[in-house]
Specification:
Largest sheet: 9 strands, antiparallel
Low-confidence stretches: none
Structural class: alpha+beta
Number of helices: 11
Order of helices and strands: EEHHHHEHHHEHEHEHEEEHEEEEEEEEE
Radius of gyration: 59 Å
Number of strands: 18
Strand content: 15-25%
Shape: rod-shaped
Strand order of the largest sheet: 10-12-13-18-15-16-17-14-11
């Protein structure tokens, strides 16, 4: 046998071949059997896979149908939608990550922290809201402006820049003093040049002080240089100007600063200044004319010296600190001499009381002789142009006239009639007067 089948290579008999069933036949049958087994096995395997594939295909068909894919067009639409969704999802994820990072940066990484942040934000205000809800921080007012005459200027003090009464007051209050006072000036008078009235001093202060919110007080003091022709309007206009130029400041008027003498002939001007202050609603202080009364040792001519200016400075500081509308000097003046030739020292005494511009004299004297000589002398006091008559009486009620010239007390005479004078009678007198009456 030399011939073979085409597919499985089985031996075939040829013409003239002797039969060899044991070898060739059996071998061919084994080949046939093996291949048929393979075929059968492969067929079974293919069938199983085909069944599985069919089932998978059926499931895929169901799934595609559930997804709305019924053909190529719907499949393409689904794909595009999935791609778009994926893109959006990626962007959303990035946004979410950025948001998470931002929240972490704000300290709102937990619900509790986020709640705290929200509450704090709710309690935070814009500037306008804050200004409306809370009071603004006030400007520090650390400046005092002085307007006045030689008293505020510090004339006759050792070092006017530091010893003037207004500089002393400013220092006691912890304020910076900007002193525009000029000697010889007033509401009407403007010194020798006529250019430094109190009103014009205010103009200079206004031009030189740019931050007016820092000015706590504008203090106007003086007025003794003004003539009797001083008018209400001159004073009122000046006070009104001070308010307009320095609206954030308190305007304080201290009229008629004086020395140790009586302010003779100045009652008109003093009243004019007080009235103008009252009717312009300006903080006006009474009783300054008596601050130096009888204190001649604290004066150099008509001006307070350094000691006197220091005393006045304390008065002014007290006024400003406590917002006083009057600073009366209240004391008993004890520097009084008795003439031993006129009265003995055992039962005789004279008391002088000062309360603002009011002075009270309480006198008792056992006369040793009947004379017009001085019985008592008030030390430090000046005389007045027109002396006063005081009504006095002896212990037996006999009326007597006593002369008072502001400095000395003396008997004039007894009233007409049958009454007898001294000596050896005890004289009594009680007299009250206002120093602005002279």
């Amino acid at each position: 046998m030399t011939a073979y089948t085409t597919n499985f290579n089985l031996e075939k008999y040829q013409t003239g071949d002797a039969a060899n069933l044991n070898d060739q036949y059996n071998a061919s049958m084994d080949i046939i059997d093996d291949n048929m087994y393979k075929i059968n096995t492969n067929a079974n395997t293919a069938g199983g896979k085909a069944t599985q594939a069919l089932e998978t295909a059926q499931n895929n068909t169901k799934n595609l149908t559930a997804l709305g894919v019924t053909d190529t067009e719907t499949a393409t639409q689904l794909k595009n939608k999935i791609d778009t969704t994926a893109t959006n999802l990626a962007a959303t994820t990035e946004t979410a990550n950025n948001a998470a990072n931002s929240l972490n940066a704000l300290g709102a990484n937990t619900v509790e922290n986020a709640t705290k942040l929200k509450n704090r934000i709710n309690d935070t205000y814009t500037k306008n809201e804050s200004d409306n809800r809370y009071l603004p921080i006030p400007t520090v007012q650390d400046t005092l402006i002085a307007i006045g005459d030689s008293y505020f200027e510090g004339f006759r003090t050792t070092t006017p820049a530091t010893d003037s009464m207004i500089a002393v007051a400013s220092r006691l209050l912890g304020l910076t003093c900007r002193n525009f006072a000029v000697g010889g000036t007033g509401f009407h008078n403007g010194d020798t040049t006529g250019d430094n009235t109190f009103s014009k001093q205010l103009d200079k202060a206004n031009a030189l002080i740019t931050d007016k919110t820092r000015v706590k007080y504008v203090v106007i003091g003086g007025g003794r240089n003004d003539p009797d022709s001083l008018t209400y309007n001159e004073v009122a206009d000046t006070l009104t100007k001070a308010k307009q130029l320095f609206p954030d400041s308190e305007i304080c008027l201290i009229p008629m600063l004086w020395d140790s003498t009586y302010p003779t002939g100045k009652s008109h001007n003093y009243s004019t200044m007080l009235n103008a202050g009252n009717y312009t609603d300006t903080w006006t202080v009474r009783d300054a004319p008596s601050w130096g009364l009888y204190r001649d040792t604290e004066m150099t001519d008509i001006h307070p010296n350094t000691s006197g200016a220091a005393r006045y400075g304390h008065y002014i500081a007290n006024i400003l600190k406590h917002h006083l509308t009057a600073q009366p000097r209240v004391e008993r003046w004890e520097s009084i001499n008795k003439d031993p030739g006129m009265t003995d020292t055992n039962v005789s005494e004279c008391n002088v009381y000062i309360n603002g511009t009011t002075v009270t004299i309480n006198m008792r004297a056992h006369l040793l002789k009947w004379s017009t000589d001085a019985i008592y002398q008030i030390n430090g006091a000046s005389t007045v142009g027109i002396w006063k008559i005081m009504l006095a009486w002896f212990d037996d009620a006999t009326p007597v006239r006593v002369k008072f010239d502001g400095h000395k007390l003396s008997v004039v005479d007894v009233f007409p009639g049958s009454a007898a004078g001294g000596p050896n009678n005890t004289l009594n007198a009680y007299f009250t007067f206002n120093i602005m009456d002279f």
